Amino acid sequence: MYRRILALVKKEFLHLKGDWWLPAFMLFGGALELLAIGWATSRPITNLPLMIWDMDRTAASRNLVISLENTGVFELTEAAESMDTIKNLMDQGEINAAVIIPHGFSSEIETIGGHPVLQVILNGSESIPAREALRAVEGVVRSLDEKITIDHLGIDPDLYNGFDFSLRVWFNEALNEAYYTTPAELALMLEFTILIFAALTFSREREFGTLEQLLVMPFSSIEIIIGKSIPVILVGLFDFSLMLGVVHFAFHVPIRGSVLLLFGLAFMYTLVELGKGMAISVFSKSQHQAFLLVFMVGMVDFLFTGYAAPVESMPKVIQYLAYLVPAHHWLNIMRGITLKGSSILDILPNILFLLVLGLVIGFFSLRYIRKALD
């Protein structure tokens, strides 16, 4: 039995060697994608084009413009002379934000009971830069408002103690976006790697016309399944190790929990996705169809992982459906072990859900595959 399984494993690796571009693309393409996403999300948003229309042209308005520039978020463009200029450049995507300082801005600041107004226009078609620009403008306006209040009250700024709060961020002290995106991307890349390689196991044989030859050989269905599963598991775990190294060493994402626990649960998750992938492989009539089914299943899983949007903000029905998606629990496990240093007890509900889903998926997949082979 072991010799027959070993022969099938060697055969699968010979297939991979013949189609070397696919494993190379999946292994190193995933690492390159992680590098690109991590590099893009680890950098702060700066140099957003900002246009100023200063109709007041006073010392107060110039100080406001300097404060906006000193945030480091904006890069000032040429000053606007009319609303049409702002509208045209905003329509063309040349600027992300515009600030209009009206006539009388300085006098309203100096007058007790005055009401200075500042109009801010943001390019909402790009929501992330717009939110960053809004935060920067709000920070400048808050500081200016505090200064106006102190001046009007006529008190010593050193003696002024306004309301403040104490902030402490756990698990991601610098609020580095890469700490959020790269572990999630790693988890999803592992799913796609396993699904694609597993989905090609039988569909490749069928397309090449060698499936019938394999079935008439002295192999039982269990031996065929095990022999085709081992290479997928090895490739998946190697890919996981490679991407985990990229995440940890390139972007300094910590692994605060047990590495052994992380790899053990990665192996469990690999088996879960392996069952789905091999069922797709048996169902598919060609490699092309297998690819399409993998991406359809992967995209559906992606919606329920909480990567694009928090599952907690979704309707209750969607939240309940998310518990039936293995990738949702795997993503929570990844973030828990890497960022929070979670122990096995902390993530036990996710582990139990993943185990139960794995047993259910494995049982029906194995039954379907054996029936198709027999």
Can you describe this structure?
This protein has a four-stranded mixed beta sheet, sandwiched between helices. It is elongated, with a radius of gyration of 29 Å. With 374 residues, it is mainly alpha-helical. The protein is built from 14 helices and four strands. The two termini are 18 Å apart.
Short description:
The protein is mainly α and 374 residues long. The chain is 68% helix and 5% strand. The chain has a 4-stranded mixed β-sheet, with helices on both faces.
Distance between the termini: 18 Å
SSE order = HHEHEHEHEHHHHHHHHH
| CA-atom Rg in angstroms | 29 Å
Mean pLDDT: 85
Helix/strand/pairing category: mainly alpha
Number of helices: 14
What amount of the residues lies in strands? 5-15%
Low-confidence stretches: none
How are the strands of the largest sheet arranged?
2-1-3-4
Which descriptor suits the 3D outline?
A: elongated
The number of E-state strands comes to 4
| Relative helix content | 55-70%
Q: Biggest β-sheet: count, sense, barrel?
A: 4 strands, mixed
How many domains?
Answer: 2
